[in-house]
Design brief:
With about 450 residues, the chain is α+β, with helices and mostly antiparallel strands. Helix content is about 40%, strand content about 20%. The chain has helices at about 20-30, 30-40, 55-70, 90-100, 120-135, 210-230, 250-265, 265-275, 290-300, 305-315, 325, 335-345, 380-385, 390-395, 400-410; strands spanning about 5-15, 15-20, 45, 75-80, 110-115, 145-150, 165-175, 180-190, 195, 205, 355-365, 365-375, 395, 425-435, 440-445. The protein has an eight-stranded mixed beta sheet, with helices on both faces. Helix 4 (about 90-100) links the parallel strand 4 (about 75-80) and strand 5. Helix 6 runs parallel beside helix 7. The longest helix has 23 residues, at about 210-230. The radius of gyration is 22 Å and the shape is globular. The structure holds 3-hydroxy-3-methylglutaryl-coenzyme A. 3-hydroxy-3-methylglutaryl-coenzyme A binds near residues 37, 163 and 250. 3-hydroxy-3-methylglutaryl-coenzyme A binds near residues 208 and 250.
Length: about 450
């Protein structure tokens, strides 16, 4: 069976950044340690006033197409995943295609375009759609462009404000991919939840503490479902575990639970037992409460073991590095986690071709999806070409007062006139509204 997966990847960060421990925490009268250590985000990326989900998506896509020497005829599908759309009818992919057509010869008139919604999960669902389209043989030799783009903004004063971010990830999905091939096996954990939602409103209604529990519950279900088709997982089966990362602290919680699950009934559990005993089994306890208390005790000890910490440092830490520098990119977040891990592998000279990743995606509302990916021979060259450092280092540092202005400028219910903080160059920019209230864009040389 021909491998299908991610052939190229590009990101575009919002061009502004807010330093959470140094700028945000003091303005809120909070301890910087909450952000630097607890939440784990140093900087939130934010969009300048001429940036939005279309410009970030189109700029990432253009970079990817240019690097790979692609023209519109090479693309048979443009799927945009977002939960920050500004139109209930016209998909963002049409705006992005319009931008791209203004700089390339040819057009995307014969490409299928759409927009996917399921909170942060839809980036992965769009990759899935592309995978299925190629596997079904309907692609006529063409590749799919998947663009996950979001401005993850919360109402000011909402606890979620600490996890904001803005950016886009463009991915080329094709046969014989250069970066990773996707497994046929998938697991799902899905339930009707009201933990995070945006009922026709720009900023989310969030029950933050509950959203954490729902994330963990759905991920666990998805892992069990994945194992039911792919067989039991073991910590050594996968070199990295890129998970949806609303903030690194969330992944820290998920990793500990996941490790307990994947080491149960293995030689790792036996080896750990010498120091912390075997994992509690429900049948050994008189009540559910006693059992849960025993689990909490086991987890507290597990997290302090050298074996767990070494696994975490090898398999999880590298996945959250970029997230800690940009915040939550919603639909793009798990794809940033994968990129982060692959970049760390380059930095640390880890040979990855043929190795496997276990990828856990999640969207509030809620659904988790887990699948495996096999790293392909061309991964190093493709990943090395992404200018992550240049983009992150080039961001403008906002003061707290400037941050409030930027937040207001992107608030659909406010009309404020704010000057741009950066100078656009060689990119698509938002220029204002047209006569039918459509958003308008142009390319700035
Ligand atoms: P909060 O209540 O302000 O923060 O909001 P906290 O008091 O819980 O502190 C956060 C962590 O920092 C805690 O760590 C503290 O202990 C620690 P934990 O106990 O949880 O491990 N801390 C400190 N550490 C060191 N030094 C200190 C210090 N102070 C505190 N001085 C919350 C946190 C995540 C609830 C909030 O930011 C929020 O509501 N965020 C938005 C919702 C969210 O991100 N949920 C995550 C799961 S749902 C999801 O991932 C989906 C999502 O991406 C959307 C989608 O799917 O579309 C959000």
């Amino acid at each position: 069976m021909t491998a299908v997966g991610i052939d190229a990847i590009e990101i575009r960060t919002g061009k502004l950044r807010l330093d959470l421990p140094e700028t945000f925490a003091p303005a809120k009268g909070e301890d910087p340690g909450k952000y630097a250590k607890g939440i784990g985000i140093q900087y939130s990326s934010l969009p300048d006033v001429y940036e939005d989900i279309v410009t970030m998506g189109a700029n990432a896509a253009r970079e990817l197409m240019d690097r790979r020497g692609l023209v519109p005829d090479d693309i048979g599908r443009i799927d945009v995943a977002t939960e920050s759309a500004f139109d209930n009818s016209k998909p963002v992919s049409t705006y992005i295609a319009g931008c791209l057509e203004s700089v390339y010869d040819g057009d995307f008139h014969h490409a299928n375009k759409g927009e996917r919604k399921f909170a942060c999960l839809s980036g992965t669902q769009s990759v899935d759609d592309a995978y299925n389209w190629i596997r079904a043989g309907r692609n006529r030799g063409r590749a799919a462009l998947v663009i996950a783009t979001d401005t993850a903004l919360y109402a000011r004063g909402d606890p979620g404000e600490a996890t904001q971010g803005a950016g886009a990830v463009a991915m080329l999905i094709d046969e014989d991919p250069n970066i990773v091939a996707l497994s046929t096996e998938q697991g799902y954990g899905s339930a009707d939840e009201t933990d995070f939602l945006k009922p026709n409103q720009q900023f989310p209604s969030v029950d933050g503490k509950r959203s954490i529990q729902v994330y963990l519950a759905r991920m666990r279900e998805a892992l069990e479902d994945y194992e039911s088709v792919a067989g039991d997982t073991h910590p050594d089966d996968f070199v990295y575990f890129p998970f949806h990362t609303p903030y690194p602290g969330m992944v820290r919680k998920a990793a500990l639970l996941g490790y307990r699950h994947i080491t149960r009934n293995t030689e790792v559990e036996e080896a750990l037992a010498e120091d912390i005993g075997m994992q509690p089994r429900e049948g050994d306890y008189g009540s559910r409460e006693d059992y849960e208390e025993a689990i909490r005790g086991y987890m507290d000890e597990l997290k302090e073991t050298r074996r767990y910490q070494e696994w975490y440092e090898r398999a999880i830490d590298p996945t959250v590095d970029i997230s800690g520098q940009v915040g939550n990119w919603y639909t793009g977040s798990v794809h940033v986690a994968r990129l982060s891990a692959l970049r760390a592998a380059i930095e640390n000279d880890v040979a990855l071709a043929g190795e496997k990743l276990l990828v856990g995606s999640y969207g509030s509302g809620a659904q988790a999806e887990i699948h495996a990916e096999t790293v392909q021979d061309g991964w190093h060259k493709e990943v090395d070409a992404v200018d992550v450092d240049q983009q992150l280092d080039g961001r403008y540092d906002l003061s707290f007062e400037e941050y409030e202005l930027v937040h207001d400028a992107h608030n659909h219910e406010k009309e404020v006139d704010v000057d741009a903080f950066t100078q656009p160059s060689g990119e698509f920019v938002f220029t204002g509204w047209g006569r039918m209230n459509e958003r308008r864009y142009e390319y700035v040389e």
